[in-house]
Specification:
The complex is a heterodimer of chains A (about 90) and B (about 600).
Chain A lengths: L8 H29 L1 H4 L3 E2 L2 E2 H32 L4
Antiparallel strand pairs in A: 1-2
Chain B lengths: L1 H20 L5 H6 L6 H12 L2 H14 L4 H25 L4 H8 L3 H33 L4 H51 L4 H4 L11 H11 L12 H17 L1 H4 L8 H19 L2 H16 L2 E2 L7 H10 L7 H7 L4 E3 L7 E2 L14 E3 L3 H9 L4 H39 L5 H29 L2 H25 L5 H23 L17 H19 L5 H11 L8 H4 L12
Antiparallel strand pairs in B: 1-3, 2-4
Helix pairs in contact in B: 1-8, 1-18, 3-8, 3-13, 3-18, 4-14, 4-17, 4-18, 5-11, 5-13, 5-20, 5-23, 6-7, 7-8, 7-18, 7-19, 7-20, 7-21, 8-14, 8-18, 8-19, 11-20, 11-22, 14-17, 17-18, 18-19, 20-21, 20-22, 21-22
Classes of the chains: A mainly alpha (about 90), B mainly alpha (about 600).
Amino acid sequence: MSKNNHIDAKGYWAATIRLTLSLLAIWFVVSYGAGILFRDFLDQFAIGGAPLGFWFAQQGSIYVFVGLIFYYCWAMARLERKFGVEG
Amino acid sequence: MDWTLFFVITTFALYIGIAIWARAGSTDDFYVAGHDVHPTVNGMATAADWMSAASFLSMAGLIAFLGYGGSVYLMGWTGGYVLLAVLLAPFLREFGKFTVPDFVGDRYYSDVARIIAVICALFVSFTYIAGQMKGVGVAFSGFLGVDFNVGIGIGMVIVFFYAVLGGMKGVTYTQVAQYCVLIFAYTVPAIFMSIIITGNPVPQLGFISNAAGEDISMLSKLNGVVTDLGFQEYTQTNKSMFDVFAITGALMFGTAGLPHVIIRFFTVPSAKAARYSAGWALIFIAALYTTAPAVGAFARINFIDTVNEATYIQDGEDYEARAAEIEAAGGKPVPTWYKTWEKTGLLEYEDKNGDGVMQYRGPNAPDGVENEVNPNRDIFVLANPQIAQLPAWVIGLVVAGGLAAALSTAAGLLMVISSAVSHDICRRTLFKDMDDKTELRVARGAAAGAVVAAGLLGIFSAQLGFVAQVVAFAFGLASASLFPVIFLGIFWKRMNKEGAIVAMVFGLISTFAYIVYFKFGGGTPDQYLFGVSPEGIGFVFMWVSGGLGIATALATSAPPQDIQDLVEDIRVPGTRQPHGVADEGMAPSPAVPAE
């Protein structure tokens, strides 16, 4: 895109990477974290009648995944407006 | 039986109608549905493409047996969509071609890389499709009394119609219809069961509610019931934490690297549409995947309730009379659904202690009684409507849903197989000056050939009976060979041809060898590398193959400037320009501004 001079491609890409990394951190925490690594700890608590860690592994992580992708869509649209990129 | 026939014929007529309406006129239509599918529509098609006979029939049963251990499938097969959305889909759409080998071959300026990617794609797709065709055969023979091979034949004819006539365009719109059929078929029995067991009509809420009319949560009740019978607690597993971690990882990264899922994102107009599409796909998938654990838990309760300690009735006896007799004596007769399904071989009872009563026990039964009942895990979704005594039309619906799940996935895989032959091998490697018309003819021919090959594979693999074993291949290979190369191709400009070839070849061979050794070569679990089972090994080798690729790339020369410019272009939507060596074989299709 080197020819497309009016767009700050470097800035846009850096911002994209930052957003991607923070979303992947949440992705990791709710699945591998809550559902596997810290499950025993979380299982002391309950959501309704289900142990919390078990619930994250079978339900909660999936809900968060959906939220993450739609947040990503929204945040990328905002980035694209800011940097004048036509998504 | 009549309801089943009604639903199967109605849905099949619908699919054929759509196929005739959505014929493909060009290679653009045939491979990527003209690049103009709406993101929500594509999301729905992706969900049907993704959810196979295994998701529909086997997953809830797997969870019912494995309890917490089944979580790897739930997290793995949904979390992969987050990776697709943020790491692959929008950039691959921006790249603007037809297939996964297109990306690998053009980004790495090498026909060798292209052919290795074709091998990975074909291998993954053929392992996967055998299971789908087998599912079609099982549904037909189990419910409609049709011969297994004839059932596969009927399935082949239907898929032939829309895949050969309509290509990706036909496949997309039939998948939308198939999604509607399968999700309806899955949720209706789940709602009924949730009401019966917990009193709450929403299965996701029933899952965390109290058992109906009792002061104890459904899950604690289940934990109590299974431990009393000598099984592991439902909310626990006996797999090591690292193994669970690795299997989840292999399924997630494998999902993101599966060619038949990736190509669905080439059908939308822009990078932005690809992102939304991934979100919609996951919503539609989550509708089934968050219901499945509830179905699994309910099914386990129902099964134990109705079967354990029931008095068996022999085939020759008058069921009604004998059942009344048993009840009069204060006993519980074997349920009718059990007798119906016993004929399929999915349930086995062996009266080891000779008391005529069916004892269902785990390996550590406190009362020391030996287990006498062996259910196949597919039985849970199939027999659920009968176990819960739901009306006959619900059973017909479940059959139509299972067929929809199998056929939609088979069609998506057929598109990968046929485009690998007609586009990647013929047009892009062997006959580079083939025109569009000829390519479209070759593509239809390849799709027809692939349908036949898939059908034969379904028939053979059923006889060999190893389908379930080889599905581990598909995810392992996709995560260890395709994912690292696609990811690095987007996020690391310096990644070159040599690195890509080394990474793919290592991922392919190491994962293949590991799985073959432990599944077929007599390897034992104590020899597992870091205690990781074959299902999870793709995750471990993914890091190794990525690392080897990076090391090789650093030791060899940087990719040409054209390629580096190309990578910068696909990172910023709307800036894609043709770049010499990467695009001289095939021009990229520009993004269509959505709004």
